[in-house]
Amino acid sequence: MDSFTQIVLGIAVAQVCAGKALKNRTFLYGAILGTMPDLDVLVGLFMDPVNGVMIHRGISHSLFLYVLLSPFLGWLISKFEHNKISFKTATAMVFWCLFTHVLLDMFTSWGTQILWPLETRFALKTIFVIDPLYTIPLLISVIMVWRTQDLLRRKKYILRGLVISSSYLLLSCGIKLYALNQFKKALLNQGITYSEIIVKPTAFNLILWNANIATADSYLLGDYSLLDSQPISFVRYAKNPNFEAELNGNSDFKKLQKISEGWYIVAKKNGALYFNDLRFGLLNDTPNNPQFAFSYQFKETNSELKAVEVPKEKRDGKRLLQKIFTRLKGN
Description:
The chain is α+β, with helices and mostly antiparallel strands. 49% of the residues lie in helices and 19% in strands.
């Protein structure tokens, strides 16, 4: 999830774990601990684009790392606070602030390597990386805690915010299962044979959902709104194995294949090869020149092909949001 949401969640969790001992100082510790796992983004700035993406939500989101790190940070906090908080309570606060960060990230499309060093990423794909309807209840509860000193009321506010936001996550799971069922029905009715399907929400909402469908020679992309009245339609994108063959043995290509979990197509435009990650959809779906949200161009650098991310412009995002808003109202 976005950094602001993770900070708010971190504060809420820190308040539950140590609010009685630290009062409003939980805002400081919760904010730091809640955003700490995403410091891997800063490390990635000093790496090439592909390796920077590969490490994101890797070791910094590992449950095993948190088990080792929590007692050390808990000890530091207990000493810094001059015994206002016990080592045990401080350790629990650290662990749960870090662990809930990862749990929330698991609901997004990117997922996390929560069992690092295992390479498997766990992604439920039920919520977009920014969703105000998840964040706002937590934010309100945190603000109410800041404004009152009564311990019982502070605890009530935080628990209420966590229950509402967590219920929203559960709701997202139920809606995803419903949307998945609608896509499967549409594929069956249209006589389409497929090997795999993934379904995820579009930006900022749980009404409009996208689906990626893998067939023998192509990928199908489709969308479904809970307000639709017409059948679901799909757009076909060929797998282009001949273009892929041109990248065989390329180290960046191998890494991008792993990052995309196999959901990609290689395209060729003006003699240049492009790697398009299908999982995050399109910025525009112009038939002759579709632009994917995550696309990499292979450029000649020091006698080898290196993948460079295709830059996105603000107007691309604005057009995409306008399209989503129009489409979620139904077809």
